[in-house]
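To the team - aspartic acid complex, inputs and output below.
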Amino acid sequence: MIRLRSMERINILKTTEYAGKKVKVCGWVHSRRDHGKLIFIDLRDRSGLLQVVFSGELYEKANKLRSEWVVEIEGVVNERPKGMINDELATGQIEMKAERLEILNKSETPPFEVSEGSEGIKEEIRLKYRYLDLRTERMKNNIVLRHKVVKLIRDYLDEKEFLEIETPVLTKSTPEGARDFLVPSRLHLGEFYALPQAPQQLKQLLMVAGLEKYFQIARCFRDEDLRGDRQPEFTQLDFEMSFPSQEEIMEIIEELMIKIAELAGKKLTFKPFKILTYKECMDKYKTDSPDLRKDKNDPDELAFAWVVDWPLFEWNKEEKRYDPMHHIFTSPKEEDIGLLEKEPLKVRSWQHDLVCNGHEIAGGSIRNHDPKIQKKIFEFVGLSEEEINNKFGHLLRAFEYGAPPHGGIAMGIDRLLMILAGEDSIREVIAFPKTGDGRDLTMEAPSDVSEKQLKELGIKIRKKD
Ligand code: ASP
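Output:
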């Protein structure tokens, strides 16, 4: 059947510009009120809510409508009488008198009323019916804010001549201190890809490639025992540039953060941002991510601070070895390299972390670009020649071909959005997050796969005893 498109649909927010005119709107029934001979509904689309009145011939049909039914309505937009104006609605000065109603789809009775929001609803229910949860005002606003922030990041970095470059998701293990998610290879039985914990080495290779300024809105995967508010996959603004000073990286990110704060209507405690050395920070606040807000009850205050001069290593008591405080690619400060053998814990690095309201939201560094120094650090943490070759041979080889000095940073988009949206969990700013134990309740993953698939991959499942 061909549907005749007699009239273009307009979005609900636009109806305010059409007083006295006939328009067509589409959306979901948000709520319905029966006033005897009149039926009122609030119709919802992504842009907002509109009061629609049905009477006369349309009464019977409108009386059947229920929450979340999908409808198309044509009617005339009227100014509301003075006393009936609703200041809480963006369209509160008008309403629509329906002349035609088409029911495009019905809905089961939803497990919770979208119009009432999902705050008090069990998270399991919200995640199972995420498509309904995302219809609520709060969740929609979070998704819209996320889009706006990511768009601002792209536009800002594009203006500064950064290139957005995609790096592979099927790649090789990238050490960021967590366990890798592995993907078995069917074509190379017994071998595995790893999902990137971060595109760290790939972005460094892009610097060797002469692309100079890179960014990516990058999905990162870390198979950790999920403690607190972590997700096995999360999104970072990944950023790298060639020939930078540390200040330059910090300045670019700081300017970006100021723009994002403006977009979200927040105010800054420090402008320029406070800069603390790691030592100052630990001495004074006993934590490396202090909450420096003046008024911790003010939902609009953002206290950004940089933490610099981190130690390159920390002592791992259990394993009795030195571990990189961040990752193995961070460059030591040139003047401290001499301390490497005798007093390794005194070696400071070119690490720069950005904290906001008590959360670490970005971390990065100037990297090693001299293969000799990088190799020395691999050896220092106890990697054998063979391990170095297997794990990092590709990187060291690349560094032999004119690697420029380079550095960068990665910022947690989910965490930043959580703070901007005033939410307590990053799950509230991710469209389809996983539960605390790593399940996707909407898609029901992880799930069993067929015998055939396993066979093709050469995998046998050993049942837990
Ligand atoms: N790759 C690092 C991370 O994910 C950040 C960086 O050093 O750029 O934490």
